[in-house]
Automatic annotation (TrEMBL):
Nudix hydrolase domain: residues covered: 33-170
A Pfam cross-reference name: NUDIX
Name of protein: NUDIX domain-containing protein
Gene3D superfamilies: Nucleoside Triphosphate Pyrophosphohydrolase
Gene Ontology molecular function, alphabetical: bis(5'-adenosyl)-hexaphosphatase activity; bis(5'-adenosyl)-pentaphosphatase activity; diphosphoinositol-polyphosphate diphosphatase activity; endopolyphosphatase activity; metal ion binding
Record key words, sorted: Hydrolase, Magnesium, Metal-binding
Hydrolase as UniProt keyword: yes
Keyword Ligase: no
Any single Gene Ontology cellular-component annotation: cytoplasm
GO biological process, alphabetically ordered: adenosine 5'-(hexahydrogen pentaphosphate) catabolic process; diadenosine hexaphosphate catabolic process; diadenosine pentaphosphate catabolic process; diphosphoinositol polyphosphate metabolic process
PANTHER family: DIPHOSPHOINOSITOL POLYPHOSPHATE PHOSPHOHYDROLASE, DIPHOSPHOINOSITOL-POLYPHOSPHATE DIPHOSPHATASE
Length: 170
């Protein structure tokens, strides 16, 4: 809903929270101390057709909706790390593309209260296998939803854009 006076959306509690985080860490942002992470945009085709669903999961700490993602892994290429995160966090495996489909930024809350800026390179994973036993089972809620619904659920603006505009590579 746009404000008629200024022609922009009003600030939400989530956007205000992000601005507060950014205001507390200007030195990190100016030093370009962005941390890298790798994420998986996991999707499946509905009834073998062209319509897709994407996987969203909840974070373990806050319960907000996210996609599987994590830190670089020794001995693994970025796309392999993204696929490993999808398996560990959601129990899904499939065909992962080696080239990223995009990236988004967010502020990561570390243990001890430190907040750091992260850039998440996203990799497409066409899910072909779903297991019920996986590393973080019971620690997250998993849901398959339309790309538009996924975009409504996640908080990061750039991730919303990636989800809404996502078209699987063939």
């Amino acid at each position: 809903m746009k404000s008629k006076k200024h022609g922009r959306k009003p600030d939400t509690p989530q956007s205000k929270h992000l601005l507060q985080q950014l205001a507390r860490t200007p030195d990190k942002l100016s030093q370009k101390a962005f941390y890298n992470q790798y994420g998986a945009l996991c999707f499946r085709r509905k009834n073998g057709g062209s319509e897709i669903e994407v996987l969203v999961i909840t974070s373990r700490d806050s319960g907000r909706w996210i996609v599987p993602k994590g830190w670089p892994m020794r001995g693994k290429e970025p796309h392999e790390a993204a696929a490993t995160e999808a398996w560990e966090e959601a129990g899904v495996r499939g065909r992962v593309r080696k080239m990223p489909i995009g990236r988004y930024t967010y502020m990561k809350n570390l243990e001890g209260g430190e907040v750091v800026p992260c850039v998440v390179e996203m990799f497409q994973v066409e899910v072909r296998e779903i297991e019920t036993q996986f590393k973080e089972r019971g620690q997250r809620i998993l849901e398959w939803v339309s790309p538009d619904e996924a975009a409504r659920r996640v908080g990061e603006i750039e991730l919303k854009s990636l989800l809404v505009n996502f078209k699987p590579w063939e």
